[in-house]
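Postdoc handover notes: sequence design on the structure in folder B. Input tokens:
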């Protein structure tokens, strides 16, 4: 079991520089003050440090898992039913002519 220090940041070996945080903020289109840049550099470095700690955990004895939730199909069985009659289909059409659905021309004025 891993133990984390209380109310303390775990700083990674390669912490983010202020320039790194400014570049990330620019990509995210965020305008940060110098105080915010310093704060986020510390916080993001701590988060990266936590991920670095997680990467050091030996998981070789654990089988790869795609999902921790039980798999359940939400699809209903595909059961063929009686087809709709021509009259039922035409009754739902916005416009019809001679038992055919009438639609606007897509490719031109034909």
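Designed sequence:
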């Amino acid at each position: 079991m891993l133990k984390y220090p209380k109310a303390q940041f775990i700083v990674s070996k390669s912490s983010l520089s202020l320039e790194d945080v400014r570049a990330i903020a620019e990509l995210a289109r965020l305008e940060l003050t110098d105080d915010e840049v310093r704060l986020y550099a510390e916080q993001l470095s701590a988060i990266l440090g936590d991920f670095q700690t997680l990467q050091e955990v030996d998981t070789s004895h654990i089988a790869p898992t795609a999902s921790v939730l039980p798999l359940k199909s939400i699809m209903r069985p595909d059961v063929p039913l009686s087809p709709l009659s021509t009259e039922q289909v035409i009754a739902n059409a916005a416009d019809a002519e001679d038992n055919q659905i009438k639609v606007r021309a897509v490719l031109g004025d034909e």
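Context for whoever picks this up: The longest strand covers residues 96-97. Don't rerun without checking with the PI first.
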